[in-house]
Amino acid sequence: MAGHNHGNTPAAWTGVVIAFIGFCVSGAFTVAAEPIGFWAGLGIVVLGGVVGMAMRAAGLGQPRRKPGPQPAREGVANTQALSGRH
Q: How far apart are the C-alpha atoms of 37 and 33, rounded to whole Å?
């Protein structure tokens, strides 16, 4: 598990920050009873997702795993070895 980023990449952080700003904008305009601002904020949320995906496509996100068998995790391998199952 230590070899995985779990979203700790520039693409993920940028997308989340932009989406958070969009939620804040939508919340402020909801309180102000301004529907146009609310929808603009939701547009910013969508923009955050698009920017995050574009940055991932540009190589700034977590690398994709190659299909096929993955190496066994250490804990699973040790448990199987101790129990005699393989």
A: 9
Contact 55, 67 (CB under 8 A): no
Percent of the chain with pLDDT over 90: 49
67: which 2 tokens? 């299909």
Question: 3-state SS of 8-77?
Answer: CCHHHHHHHHHHHHHHHHHHHHHHCCCHHHHHHHHHHHHHHHHHHHHHHHHHHCCCCCCCCCCCCCHHHH
Gyration radius (Cα) of the chain, Å: 21
Task: Report pLDDT digits (tens) over 52-66.
Answer: 999 988 888 887 777
- Stretch 67-74: mean pLDDT, rounded? 65
